[in-house]
Amino acid sequence: MSPDPRSLEGTGLSEAWVDDLVERTLAEDLAGGAVLPGAPDLAVSCDVTSAATVPPAQLGTADLVARAGGVVAGLPVAARVFTRLAPGATLTAGAADGDRVARGDVLLTVRGPVRALLAAERSALNIASRASGIATATRAWADAVEGTGAVVLDTRKTTPGLRPLEKYAVRCGGGSNKRMGLYDVAMVKDNHVAAAGSVAAAVAAVRERAPRVPVQVEADTPAQAVEAVAAGADFLLLDNMTPAQLREVVGLVGGRAELEATGGLTLSVAREVAATGVDFLSVGALTHSSPILDLALDLRAG
């Protein structure tokens, strides 16, 4: 038996979160409160065009197709959009999240009531196109630093309400996640230092109140990096440093703290930065500026 294209196994996405995302996404198209459990006909009827042009009992098959090459992500979530409105639909996977695909490749095939497929079309495409665009951009960065030992990270610069999906898409593209929120890593930045009085005081305060949380300190110069390590930082966020400065920091504190380059990074300099010896490159643009991957739904009637 082929795997269920709706399965979230291995994605790190919770069933409850995905169900909520699907409901919220469909509600944007289907008059909000009309998307109710157990009332798929009511939901579909809110698609006035399909209700007017498609007979209620008409069945069809639709292919989710790549209109451009890239890396796909979010297919299980998109699949659940279709089965939310057409619970009896049959789905066949043509690709899996993380796959490289070419223009014209069929990523998912769905058979069910045509009204439901068309009502779900844009919501499914929005989710998969957004996630796949992030995965595609991340893969370009991961390819650029391949072999250097450095890892590409995302940041918290995500679309409100979509962070789990967008960070999952980064993983699909070969990157890794930094902190998921404000709770899992203590990030001591300049404003925290100003409030606490010094880097050492800020780190000590975190250690006292959250002893199990890793501590990262932002540094703008090699001297600040040395100070942060002396204060007990586990990680350093090396902000807007030149490759020469990054190499200097690696020589001064490498091995005593993990080093993350950030700020103004572009794909054209990714390999040069990675070659300085830093452990990570964090790139906010992965989630805040990646263009979507162009996907479409092609209906085959009958």
How are the SSEs ordered, and which strands pair?
Layout: H1 15-29, H2 40-45, H3 48-53, E1 59-66, E2 70-71, H4 75-85, E3 90-93, E4 100-101, E5 106-113, H5 114-145, E6 151-153, H6 163-172, E7 186-188, H7 190-196, H8 199-209, E8 215-219, H9 222-230, E9 235-239, H10 243-253, E10 258-262, H11 270-274, E11 280-282, H12 285-288, E12 295-301
Parallel strand pairs: 6-11, 7-8, 8-9, 9-10, 10-11
Antiparallel strand pairs: 1-5, 1-12, 2-4, 3-5
Helix pairs in contact: 1-4, 1-5, 4-5, 5-6, 7-8, 9-10
Pfam families: QRPTase_C, QRPTase_N
EC number: 2.4.2.19
InterPro entries: Aldolase_TIM (IPR013785), NadC (IPR004393), NadC/ModD (IPR027277), Nicotinate_pribotase-like_C (IPR036068), Quinolinate_PRibosylTase_N_sf (IPR037128), Quinolinate_PRibosylTrfase_C (IPR002638), Quinolinate_PRibosylTrfase_N (IPR022412)
